[in-house]
Amino acid sequence: MQAAITEGRWQWRDRLVALVLLAPAVIYLFAMSVYPTIFSLWLSLHNYIIYRRDRVSFAGFSNFTDLLDSETFQESLRVTLEFAASAVTLELALGFAIAVLLDRKMRGIGVLRTLLIVPVLISPVGIALTFRYIFAPTYGLLTYLLHSVGLPSPDWTVSVTWALPVVVFVDVWQWTPFVALILLSAMQSVSVEVTEAAELDGLSEWQKLWRIVMPLVRPVLLVVVLIRLIDSIRVFDAVFVLTGGGPGSTTEVLSLFSYIRGFTEGDMGSASAIAWVTLVLVNVLVLIFLRFLSQNVR
């Protein structure tokens, strides 16, 4: 009996210690994730002007309906989807090509793989600032190089034609190595016996790649696309530093549109509604990709 009581006390102490150790992480998670999410939902359902908090009133779903009727929001949604589709497509194509090139025995391959991860480790703000000076219309490095060989240089970041491609280029430059390394890991996990059997059957390198390797790495490919698509839809820092959403609304993605509504115009209700629309859009895409992924894993 005494042993059972002693064991019960130790179990209670173990649980108490576990709760004490987990408490900081739980409090941090609640303070930085759960509470802001609930508060943003509350904001989206109210007329909340940050400069006039004395006039806060319940708005229901009017913030959401106003967004659906807003041409500015529709344009921002179009820019976001165009940016995400362009960036992810280029990153996937280039990343797959780089992975194929690195999936072989060659001298210095370890050094190349190490250097490939460097852009991913750099802060997006730092990369955006670097490319901002490279693409600067008057004193930029690219402008100087083009002028030095007698070629014209457009106003890259303030041009309606070139602003969005510049932002896409910077995103592709940073995240293509990430895609390449993940796909390279998937390719190298393919069993050697499978590839050797394909070679014995007389398959060429391209046939082996498309008929053997691609079906085996397709689940990993879909996961990479999903990760990059989510990041591309919620992109903010690179666009904010490079173009600020301009010229006009050429590069005004949803996250930047929400920032302008909330912290420039002070309409936190509308800004929170934009954030929730973005969240719903991301979750819809996640569900679609998870369905495709489950079909490919079977």
Name the descriptors.
298 residues; mainly alpha; MetI-like fold; 2 domains; two-stranded antiparallel sheet; 13 helices
Polypeptide structure, described:
Helices cover 75% and strands 1% of the residues. It is globular, with a radius of gyration of 25 Å. The chain is mainly α and 298 residues long. Helix 1 packs across helix 13, helix 3 (71-102) packs parallel to helix 8 and helix 3 (71-102) runs antiparallel to helix 10 (205-233).
Judged by helices, strands and strand pairing, the structural class is: mainly alpha
H/E topology pattern: HEEHHHHHHHHHHHH
Q: How much β-strand is present in the residues?
A: under 5%
CATH class group of the largest domain: Mainly Alpha
**What is the arithmetic mean of pLDDT?**
85
Q: Over the alpha carbons, how many angstroms does the gyration radius reach?
A: 25 Å
Low-confidence regions: none
Secondary structure elements and pairings:
Elements: H1 2-44, E1 46-47, E2 57-58, H2 62-68, H3 71-102, H4 109-116, H5 118-121, H6 124-134, H7 141-148, H8 163-188, H9 192-200, H10 205-233, H11 237-242, H12 254-264, H13 268-297
Antiparallel strand pairs: 1-2
Helix pairs in contact: 1-13, 3-8, 3-10, 8-10, 9-10, 10-13, 12-13
